[in-house]
Amino acid sequence: MFIYPICLHKYMINILDASFLAPSGALIIAIIASILILRRFQSQTWAVKKWLVICIFSWIPWSGMTVLMRLTDNQESALLYLRISFTSLQLAFFGMYRFHFILTFKSTDRRYSSYGMAILITFNIISGWNERLLGAVRTDNGLYFTDSFHSLLIVTNLLAAAWTGYQTLGALRDLHLFSQFYSPNRERKPLQIFAAILIFLVMFIVLIIWVLGDTSGAKPDTTIFIFFAWSVISFLAYTYGIRPLSRILSPQRIWAFIVINSRSGLPIYSKSFNSEVEDDGGGFLMFSGALNATNTIIKHHLNSPSSINLVILDDKAVLVHQERDILFCLMIDHVSAHFEIILDVLVNRITNHLEFQTLDTFSPLIDTKFIDPILNGLLEA
Amino acid sequence: MVSTNLILSVFYAVIVSFIVVLMAYRTYRSIKHTLVIASILIFIWSFILIFTNILIEDQVITEPLSIIGVFFLSSSLFLNHFHFDDQTALFRQRITMLLASFAYGGTIASLLYENSITRNDLGTARVEIIVLVSLLIQAGLMVYRFYFHLVNQNSLSQHYALHSRYSSLFEKYGVFFVVIIFFVSALIAFALHIPLISGYYILIPSGYFIIIFLLYKDPLSSAPIGQKIHLVALLSENKIKYIHNLASQKESLAQREDFGPFLSDINQLLQEIARSEANVRSISTNDVLVMFEPCGDDILVFILQYRGPTLSRLLVSLSQKIISYDVSTQNEFSSLVESTLLRTKQDLRVISLVNKSWVILVNEHAANYKKGFVKWNLYLERGNLIELHEFTPDWIVRNEPTHILVMGGDGTVHYTVNQLIKSGKNIPIGILPGGGGNDIARRWSDNHRVKGDRSVLQYLETPIMKISYPDHAIYAVNTIEWGVGAPTAKLREENYGRWLFGMPKYFYLVIKALSRFEPWKSKLVIDGEELHFDQLSAIMIGFGNSSVGGGFDIFPDEHKNAQWSYILYAKNYQRFQGLNIMFKLARGKQYGEDNIDYKRFKNLELVPLQENVNVLTVDGEIMGVPPVSVIISETKIKTFTII
Predict the structure, then answer these.
(1) How many CB atoms lie within 10 A of CB B528?
(2) Is the dihedral of CA B473, B478, B483, B489 positive or negative?
(3) At what angle do helices A3-11 and A46-71 cross, to 10 degrees?
(4) Which residue of A273, B107, B437, B615 sits 20 to 30 Å from the alpha carbon of B36, by its own alpha carbon?
(5) Are A268 and A368 within 8 A, CB to CB?
(6) What's the Cα-to-Cα distance from B522 to each of A285, B482, B540, B610, B630, rounded to whole Å?
(7) Is residue A138's pLDDT more than 60?
(8) Alpha-carbon distance B134 to B635, whole Å?
(9) Res. B209: pLDDT tops 60
(10) Which of A311, A318, A333 to mutate to test the interface with B (most CBs of B within 10 A)?
(11) Does B286 sit within 8 Å of A304, measured CB to CB?
């Protein structure tokens, strides 16, 4: 309502100006992307999606405030809008980094990277409110305000972007973004691969132009570069949402989910996600017996009051969660924070289920069909 | 305004703490770097502090310098935090480190603000509150992490319980003290509007210094793992080849017959679980972690408490060492484990031999009694510990220990040997040095080295001297002194110079003793030859490789025969002229003077020719007045060394 009249008298001529178009377009994309992503990740828990949501939602104040900065006539307001938008941008960087971190990386690995990112992001946020480092200046034609980055801030932002980009690319490589597995039949359509590569290429070219332009004194608008960067992020976040399970099939795959009665050592529920460990009748029985025996030995011999919570092998990992006399085991490729969260949620949902609460674990004939929809809801949403 | 003296004291404190860091971590090759870099940064910061506050007055220079200084300080705090985090942070408990990273980034950014640090004409600096707050947050988080580091340290130390009981209490209060320094003082400074500068000028470096000092107090427990390790074992073909227990409370576990099959069962079961040939790397509960590491064809098993970032590095390093050293006995394995994990200097090969049939004598009056308990804890835990006064000939006959280990100094060993000879038993004696000078330990160690083929326990027949008084006889293990030795020993008993140790202490006591000293008239009969002295100043009797006063060699190198006995005599030295001998003794150049000579002897008589002469000191203890005769005793004692 208030944008339109201001636009009318001042910006009709400059409506095609990229500095105005970029944030406006970004704002629209951000709002749409947020809605789509929220819908796609509807069934995921907040522990999994919170950083993604922070990342996507930070985009709205960033682009929105940039649009407001273009429209205002007041230096002070312009500076305030710029600062808010800049802070949002930093939060978005961190959110994106953190989301990929939880998604794929092992909890103890890459901690140096996390600390470095935290230092950089805080530095940027606090520097963004320093007049000497970030200012709002009028453009040469005097029509609107644009940002003016100190070279130090350009460098640290580039670092933060490169850092986030590097970790994201690492995660995408792990997730086989550039291979074929996304569609329902686990094969990505050539168009999608092409789009993914193209969009990265464009971002890379724009980055080069932007850096070269800035160093040669041409002062290209920073927001244009960030707009491109953000388009990529939105695109990726959207594609994650298409089929969350498919992204973890390789190399982080779920092999099996088994529920064991720790008194009898028998499996009371099992589901295989991979033909290699498919239940051939005796397979899971042996698994249950072995795990239960190991658990008993460890508790008995090593005087451990708690049960096994993790078994790590060269090529697999078994996450274990005990509730009452039941052991919930998730066999996956390697330990990651993401799957610890998943298992926690899974166990919560199962144990809170009415049928579980009335379950007689002594009975050999236990109906555990109620677990299926829970498992499907969480892992295959 | 911060006074010059204060800044200089901060500077000195930083230098001292830097040296302490280097000393405490000198053996921790791969782990010390972070802490050393952190200390260097603090060092640079304090150097800049001196420049900006004392040497330079120009604001154009001092302001940017101060900013750079605080940057170094903040970086140092960050690295310190990282160091403790790296050593002891538990799996997934890294939130404080992440917060510290935010605070560090905040500090650096806030330093770039205009007037973040300003100086007035008086040279006083004013720090922007945002800088100070972020520094305090960093410091607070570091202390928090350090507190847990100490908590974990204590759990590591519990199986060496003798010292941890008193040290942990001290550490606890030490940490509370640091916390109070950091926060209460800072809060008071805020509340009373005391210039905020004191926050980073005084509080943070003082706290840092205290932390470093606490760390140095117990370097053993600052071992890289910082948690309780129950045991380390090597599995070969599903059987336990070697096993080394580190936590005494789990001793029964490893002694169980089914423990070997248990470990191999776990391994096999887990391979079943994986349904693959892949090796199991670890299995954990909330309280126990079992880790497996391939070691050639064998598997190394660690049983400990919880995951830590430095663990896998250690495990790989231990595995490589086992392969490269070609470990072939249990003792070698234990020794390697202990040296890799705990960096102890105690010889595990010997420790593993110690059992309750070994008697370990402790002397609460020995100079380094408390330190000895820390230093030799592994021996003390395993042997049969008794106080010196209980060690009588009757006791020896009644209990018949297989070995005697003496923790103490020369006096303690002297007493032990004499009691042993009285009992008529010939039980091997070893020493855990815990005295001031430890000359006997030095000599025995030298004897065993001379023999060349030092195996785990090498037994030697060591000669001693028999001193016959008119009515009784005693045995000297190392030296007999007549002269300045007695007043020196007396001063030592009166606790003079208790703040010194080793050679410096001996020097100090001798100088003090010389002030009371007078030469005397006497006669020596050396192998039948009579020597008369009007002014005899000093006599030292010992074996070729005997030393006095914590390492002063008495006899020249060419006569260092451990089996031969010698007498050194000095004459015509008045009071402080005796110092001359001391200085020469210290440099090993006492011979060549007309007034000093030495002779080899087989039997010897010391006869005073005047009243009121000095008493004898035997092995550093005052033991009666001549006339006496000294011979090499036919009885030899059996000794062994452990160092």
Answers:
(1) 8
(2) negative
(3) 40
(4) B107
(5) yes
(6) 96, 11, 14, 7, 16
(7) yes
(8) 73
(9) yes
(10) A311
(11) yes
